[in-house]
């Protein structure tokens, strides 16, 4: 519980007097607030924490201290009644009578997006901007304050999203973005915690159902055997999918940024963008076929794949390019699935999921699968993961080549 005490500061001002301060302590942290009063040590009563009779106008001054003390306890009691886990800064604002923050949701949202762009986190900025545009398409009130975002409004926003063809995953993503924004606003003092609506509106209720995402080895073979000469517009999607599958589930962003300098001696070495983990992968034959194709046809920049067409793109340009190409990639994969007869929601992530599932079904231990994918925090079992040499993982990885089909590009 928070405690309040009025004391003298331990340092004097230039005139040799000691400032009178209010010290609040909460959660083992303290903050001092000046009360704009000061006196000498001889005029201060340490026992009762007030001025002695020797201090000029001591009666009136002690009355001021009593009112300050009463105000401090009143603020703390109100926080407790509102069940607000207040910060020392929030207490000081209340104590000093600082006006509540007038920043609107839209203003704060745009400020966060701007900060993300300045920090080089263009991908996060784009996602947050898309959620902002969606939310204010639903809510036309541009001067909306955070305290006006209540569970009822969130329920209505969810209905709006579903009416506009947002799947469970899309609804959950936007609600998590909005919740994260609200938490940032609380930390910045833009809104009080007592207005937090996500104690009642639970984002966890939006859990996505268990959709079978992994392809079987037979289904992967269907993609391997897909004749792209009949559908040249879908050829790139086939290559990217199989490259990801045969390179330990490398994700699209890392494929996009893969450089020829990352490839040497039959191995691919790169730093995963998401986890910053280092990968050293032995190149399997299907992946090598794909590399050979791009080396002969599209060796125009330092990048392996013709996704980033310039070497001097800004972080925002890279993210915009990623968004555009990934959208087309996933759209093309769905077309391939229809053509070859795969009745599953095919996407770039399915390659990674299929790699892990099929390796496991081939008898590879869970710890090696986890290690090969760079999983450092995978549920409880991650605590028991061991480090494996690259050649051990490569040996297990080669099990994917049982009964391989030749790839023609």
TrEMBL record:
- Output the superkingdom of the source species: Bacteria
Its GO biological process terms? Answer: DNA integration; DNA recombination
An example of a GO molecular function for this protein is: DNA binding
Give the InterPro entries listed for this entry: Arm-DNA-bind_5, DNA_brk_join_enz, Integrase-like_cat_sf, Integrase_catalytic, Integrase_recombinase_N, SAM-like_dom, Tyrosine_recombinase_XerCD
A Pfam family matched in the record: Phage_integrase
Q: Which UniProt keywords apply?
A: DNA recombination, DNA-binding
In terms of SUPFAM superfamilies, this protein maps to:
DNA breaking-rejoining enzymes (SSF56349)
Keyword DNA-binding part of the UniProt annotation: yes
Q: Which PANTHER family match?
A: PHAGE INTEGRASE-RELATED, PROPHAGE INTEGRASE INTD-RELATED
Entry similarity comment: Belongs to the 'phage' integrase family.
Instruction: Spell out the protein name for this chain.
Output: Site-specific recombinase XerD
Highest classification ranks of the organism: Bacteria, Pseudomonadati, Bacteroidota, Flavobacteriia, Flavobacteriales
């Amino acid at each position: 519980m928070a405690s309040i005490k009025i004391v003298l500061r331990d340092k004097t001002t230039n005139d040799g007097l000691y400032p009178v301060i209010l010290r609040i302590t909460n959660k083992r942290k303290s903050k001092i607030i000046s009360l704009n009063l000061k006196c000498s040590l001889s005029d201060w009563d340490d026992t009762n924490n007030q001025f002695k009779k020797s201090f000029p106008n001591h009666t009136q001054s002690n009355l001021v201290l009593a009112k300050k003390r009463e105000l401090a306890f009143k603020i703390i009691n109100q926080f407790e009644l509102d069940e607000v886990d207040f910060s020392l800064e929030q207490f000081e604002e209340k104590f000093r009578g600082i006006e509540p923050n007038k920043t609107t949701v839209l203003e704060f949202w745009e400020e966060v997006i701007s900060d993300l762009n300045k920090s080089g986190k263009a991908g996060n900025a784009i996602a947050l901007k898309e959620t902002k545009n969606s939310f204010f398409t639903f809510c036309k009130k541009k001067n909306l304050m955070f305290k006006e975002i209540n569970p009822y409004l969130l329920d209505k926003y969810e209905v709006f999203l579903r009416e506009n063809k947002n799947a469970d995953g899309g609804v959950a993503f936007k609600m998590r973005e909005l919740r994260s924004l609200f938490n940032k606003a609380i930390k910045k003092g833009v809104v009080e915690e007592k207005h937090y609506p996500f104690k009642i509106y639970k984002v966890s209720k939006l859990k996505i159902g268990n959709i079978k995402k992994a392809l079987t080895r037979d289904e992967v073979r269907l993609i391997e055997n897909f004749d792209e000469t009949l559908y040249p517009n879908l050829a790139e999607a086939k290559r990217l999918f199989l490259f990801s599958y045969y390179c330990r589930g490398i994700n699209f962003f890392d494929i996009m940024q893969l450089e020829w300098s990352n490839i040497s001696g039959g191995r691919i070495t790169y730093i995963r963008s998401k986890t910053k983990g280092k990968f050293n992968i032995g190149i399997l034959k299907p992946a090598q076929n794909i590399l050979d194709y791009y080396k002969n046809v599209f060796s125009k920049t330092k990048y392996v794949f013709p996704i980033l067409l310039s070497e001097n793109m800004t972080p925002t340009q890279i993210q915009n390019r990623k968004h555009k190409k990934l959208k087309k990639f996933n759209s093309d994969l769905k077309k391939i699935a229809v053509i070859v007869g795969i009745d599953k929601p095919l996407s770039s992530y399915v390659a990674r999921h299929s790699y892990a599932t099929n390796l496991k079904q081939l008898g590879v231990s869970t710890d090696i699968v986890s290690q090969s994918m760079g999983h450092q925090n995978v549920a409880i079992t991650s605590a028991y993961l061991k480090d494996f040499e690259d050649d051990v993982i490569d040996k297990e990885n080669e099990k994917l080549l049982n009964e391989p089909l030749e790839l023609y590009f």
